[in-house]
Specification:
By secondary structure, the chain is mainly alpha-helical. The protein is built from 11 helices and no strands. It starts with a helix and ends with a helix.
Length: 339
């Protein structure tokens, strides 16, 4: 092996090592943030951002990154217990869930640009709602088997675990994928920036209002998400979903507002229904608007090519001859030869 080849190999190993370290650090830090809302045993939370990070990592860099996901999951759970064997089993579940979701998404031809309707549906139903059943079932089952949790608490705990992992995918994954494609808008007007700020601030204000009222006003957030999807597509809808979901999750963890008076399982049902609805609404509308814009762009390009072809076939004719506004006008040359 030449010196150049060895140098390239060392650089490749160094890049992979830094990538693994970054994934482990992101998983660990986001896990600690998610544990701030824990509801069961100090380790089961209704919002678990690492699942979204893990799924995006696998989508971007492939299955070879699963050891980084497993290491991050182990570092988070090892301090939570109950003992080393259950921790290893929980780590396996936390690793298998994003891997399973990744395989399901790859099976249906998922595109990370999230610019098609089928991609939005796949991320919600396959990546979040179905894929995260694995970690919730394994994790809750391990806690029951280790006598760290009573058997009667299986389903309430399972609902919290599944809600948290699914929310990590629904909230974090679209935001990371949108940030990957986002570009700084150089020519955006002041009104455009003001609209974006008003949209984010309005989403936060309405979410706070809805989660501090005993009357169920959570539906008031939906029009803002529709606005964000129509005006800014995924780049605007994803941050709004994050804001609304985090505020609602915090209220659900405290049993405030529309969550008051319900048991843990009912709270998780309400929370999952709300977050699933807002995520699905934002993703679907963003994909529909993106598809529409792409179709309009293709139509414009076809019209331009058609105009060029017509000008080459009849160079002496002007474009006005073919414009719809002149379709009803008479040709003076034909008028002179008319009997």
């Amino acid at each position: 092996m030449t010196d150049a080849a060895r140098g390239a190999l060392r650089r490749q190993y160094a890049t992979e090592g830094l990538r693994v370290a970054a994934v482990v650090a992101a998983y660990y830090v986001s896990g600690k943030i998610g544990l701030q809302q824990e509801l069961v045993r100090g380790q089961v939370t209704p919002f678990w951002p690492p699942t979204g990070i893990a799924l995006v990592v696998l989508l971007l860099w492939g299955l070879r990154m699963w050891p980084a996901v497993a290491l991050g999951a182990f570092l988070v759970n090892v301090t939570l217990g109950p003992s080393i064997l259950p921790v290893l089993a929980i780590t396996v579940g936390n690793t298998l869930a994003p891997v399973f979701a990744f395989l399901l998404l790859r099976r249906v031809g998922f595109r990370i640009t999230l610019d098609r309707l089928q991609d939005a549906l796949a991320l919600v139903f396959l990546g979040a709602l179905i894929g995260m059943v694995v970690s919730a079932t394994v994790g809750t089952g391990v806690l029951v088997a280790a006598d760290a949790l009573a058997a009667d608490d299986f389903w309430p705990t399972w609902s919290v675990w599944w809600t948290g992992d699914a929310m990590g995918v629904l909230v974090v994954a679209p935001l990371l994928l949108a940030a990957r494609e986002a570009r700084w808008p150089r020519r955006a007007s002041t009104l455009r920036w003001a609209e974006a700020v008003a949209l984010l601030g309005g989403t936060a204000a309405v979410s706070v209002l809805a989660t501090h009222s005993r009357v169920n006003l959570l539906f008031l957030v939906v029009p803002l998400l529709i606005w964000a999807a129509f005006r800014f597509q995924l780049a605007g809808a994803a941050p709004c979903v994050l804001i609304a979901s985090v505020i609602t999750i915090h209220a659900g963890a405290r049993g405030a507002g529309p969550f008051a008076g319900h048991d843990l399982l009912a709270q998780m049902v309400i929370l999952q229904a709300f977050n699933g609805t807002v995520s699905l609404t934002a993703l679907l509308l963003s994909a529909i608007i993106t598809e529409r814009n792409r179709t309009l762009g293709e139509i414009e390009r076809v019209c331009e090519r058609l105009t060029e072809a017509l000008s080459q076939l009849a160079p002496e004719e002007t474009l006005d001859r073919w414009s719809p506004s002149r379709a009803g006008e008479r040709d003076p040359r034909r008028e002179r030869h008319r009997p």
